Input
Amino acid sequence: MRIAFFGSSLVSCYWNGAATYYRGLIRALASLGHEVTFYEPDAFDRQRHRDMEDPEWARVVVYSSQTYSELDSCLDEASDCDVIVKASGVGVFDEYLEARVPQPGRHKATIFWDVDAPATLDRVLEDACDSFRNAIPRFSAILTYGGGQRVIDTYLGLGAKICVPVYNAVDPSTHFPVDPDPAYRADLAFLGNRLPDREARVEEFFLRAASLCNTKRFLLGGSGWSGKAFPENVRYIGHVSTTAHNSFNCSSLAVLNINRLSMAAYGFSPPTRVFEAAAAGACLITDGWEGIDSFLKPGTEVLVANNGSEVASLVCNLDREEALAIGSAARERILREHTYAHRARQVNVLLNRIAAQEPAVVEVTA
Output
C-alpha cells in the first residue's frame, strides 16, 4: 500500500521522543512492501538538529510551519494514497490536520495514530468542546503506542470505530550492545526531556535517589534541564542524539526509565527507551506501572521501583554480575517478542482488514 504519514519528525529526535518509534515501524512496514511518505513541519529547530539523512525506506517531505499553503499541497498529494495517517503531537496545525485528514471520500482509509494516548484522552475528557472529540468517529481506526484496555475502552466510548495498541518496540539493526564510552560512565543513567508531567517524577525517582545514594554516580541526559538544581553526584550532559543512545545505554551499571505521570496512571505504556535499553543489554530499572510484566519479567529481566528510596536501594546494592544477567535476559526477551518487525506484521493485518472494509479484531498484544 501507499501510505501518507503526517507526524512530528522522522529525521530528527530533537524534542521529539516519538522519532525512533516512527523509524522502527515505518522501516519495518517498508520491508513488507509498503511505500511510505512522511510529511513533517519545519518547526522547533528540528531540521537544524537532524540526526539522520532521508532514509532509503521512506520519502520525507518537509513543509513550512508558517502558512497552510505547503501543507495543503501535501494533503492534495497524499489524497492519492491508500492510507493516510495523522499522528498526535505534530506540533503544528494539529487541529487543521485532524479536520482535513478524515474527510469523507478523500482516502480509502484514515488513521489517527496516538503516540501519547493517556495525555490525549485526559485532555479530551476534561474538555467537552475539544475539537478532536468530534473527529474521533470519522477516522477509520485509532492506533496508539500504549495504554492497554483502558485506552481501548475510552476511545471506543468516544466513538472510535477501532482502537488497537501498537506498542513501542526496537529495531535490532539500530539498537544493540556496544563497548562502554567513558563519557557516559555512571552507576545510574536516565535519558528524558524535561516535560511538565514528568518533572516531579524525575525529582522523586532520579534526583531523590541520587541524594539518598550519594556515593554513586548519576548521569542525566535530555533537553531542558539546564538551570535546575541537582545533587553533587548528578552530572547533566544535555541532549543525547539517537546516534549515541547505544553508548549511553551500555556505559552505566544500570539505566533508569521514568514514565510520565499520565502514562504511569494508565499503565501498559512502555516508552521506546525501555526497549532500546533492553536491546542494548542494559540493566533496566523502571518506575512501577501496571502491565510491565507483559513486556519484561520483574526481578529477572527488569528491576522495578515504586519510589526514589527503592531506586536508591537497588543502585546501592546492585553488582555488575547481576546487572549483566538482567540485561542479557532482557535483550533475549525483547528480540524474541518486541521488535518492530513484530509490530509491523500486526499493523499489516490491520491495514488489510481496513482496506477490505472487514471488521478488525481488537487484540491487546504486547
About this structure: The longest strand covers residues 35-42.
